[in-house]
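Hey,
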Amino acid sequence: MQTRYSELLLKTIARIAPGTELREGLERILRGRTGALIVLGSDKTVTSISSGGFSIDTEFSATRLRELAKMDGAIICNREGTRLLHAAVQLSPDTSIDTNESGTRHRTAERVAIQTGFPVISVSASMSVISVYVDGTRYTVESTQYLMSRANQAIQTLESYTRRLSTVLTELSSMEIESTVTITNVALTLQRMEMVRRIIAEVSHYVLELGVNGRLVSLQLEELRNPESSTSDIILRDYLPDANELTIAAAQQALENLDDMDIVDLKTVARVVGFDDIDMEAPLHPRGYRLLDGIPTMPRAITERMVERFGSLQALMAASLEDLRAVEGVGEQRARTIRESLSRMAESSLEKFLY
């Protein structure tokens, strides 16, 4: 399952992404094989566990960071990593703070991060690894080459899953029109949507980590993003027995919380989103939100009134122009637009399905 990162960790990853001055400084330290301990933030707590060293309070630069790292002790920067405040500082965090790290520098880094709440970066001289400690989490910074490889693999996977989702949505539209939708069809659609969402989140994280090197991946991601496949909201609104803002939000959260083993089980998907009847072949009838949402310039308020008036997609599609005009806010022109749009969708969907 896609790891959930704290907001502070994501901000820190962005600050040390390739193309930033801080990342250039870290890379120079790695090449120099000197190691470093860098605290991104300073307050009374940091001061209370600090001793020795000297104050510099100067503008940050990669060269200065590299030179300061040659000395023993930690380097203290401001939160944004734009100024170097102190160098050669001896840090003495609370030793009662539990840590699983073995090396002295890493143990200190984790404890300082927990005690102060500031991100702490540890550069290992022996292992040539950059580690970031934030909110009780250790995050290892991977090489650009490794990240590019993983990002390209994820993009290829996203292309494949996006095509599969498009096929599933086309089939669902045809079944909606023919009134043959079952819980299995809806669960499969929700499963595919969630898988696409997870891959998009993974690629987005690679873009963040890659910094300036992630521009091409970012362009590919934007090209593959499909508004129709980005959220399960419209499907849940169409099919949940008791669909409202709270139940839809709860169902979406339940989908996100499923691990990689459970998400492949359609019965589990159906159960967690709120279908009490786990007869997977039980028929379902859409309310019509998704197809109405596909009509250009259709206001959400009008869609709500249409669904409230007709109750189901089948009743909506069978409605005459006079029936449509009877809905508040739907005049002659809009009624014709709705009627013609739904007819075109039905013909197009059936043609694609048969093809």
